[in-house]
Amino acid sequence: xxxxxxxxxxxxxxxxxxxxxxxxxxxxxxxxxxxxxxxxxxxxxxxxxxxxxxxxxxxxxxxxxxxxxxxxxxxxxxxxxxxxxxxxxxxxxxxxxxxxxxxxxxxxxxxxxxxxxxxxxxxxxxxxxxxxxxxxxxxxxxxxxxxxxxxxxxxxxxxxxxxxxxxxxxxxxxxxxxxxxxxxxxxxxxxxxxxxxxxxxxxxxxxxxxxxxxxxxxxxxxxxxx
Length: 226
Ligand code: CMP
Prior knowledge:
It holds the Pfam family cNMP_binding. One of its GO terms (molecular function) is DNA binding. Residues 146-219 form the HTH crp-type domain. It is a single chain. The chain folds into 2 domains: 3-143, Jelly Rolls (Sandwich); 148-225, Arc Repressor Mutant, subunit A, CATH 1.10.10. Helices cover 46% and strands 26% of the residues. The protein has 10 helices and 12 strands. The chain has a 4-stranded antiparallel sheet. A 4-stranded antiparallel sheet has the order 2-7-4-5. Strand 11 (206-209) and strand 12 (212-215) form a beta hairpin. Helix 8 crosses helix 9. It is globular and about 55 Å long. The two termini are 34 Å apart.
């Protein structure tokens, strides 16, 4: 997909007609980061938001004792770094390349006139924020009410929705996460998450292939996530 097609899917641009999108596009600067490179850190001041054009980005937070929690894995068309636009305070998470990645960066100052001048842009951004709050509420409820295998199943289905491709015998999800990172996303220890994955594999629901899984029985995995 080319840059304009990917940007067109992002909440900011989806609200605009051709001319509007072309005008906003002039404020975009492209940034490339390599796998493992940090774009910004939690606590820093931030003045830009980003749309992923290519590759994957992980958003994480670090506890005072050094443990990490993954908030989300983002792929093409997804936006991040907008919280400090609406609420000018430090970055709430660290953004790191999970793969080599290409991003579109937009300065908060360049964006503000669009928010005030084009209500449809503000509405689309609010919608994106509302969707994130819904998802965060779901994640929070799952942490309290759902066991680790259920959370693993749900995380895999979420990743499948974003990164899944039909394969011969199922849905191939190349998530690029290490076992440790998958555990950080689920909010459990690596051992417990591995045990759940091994159990799913043994039941024939999925096959593990390095930093990817092939989901063989979507329905059973879905039922286990509920
Ligand atoms: P900002 O705080 O500017 O920088 C970190 C970004 O991570 C933040 O904006 C959001 O875009 C994003 N972010 C923060 N919390 C979450 C979350 N729970 N789920 C998805 N993205 C998030």
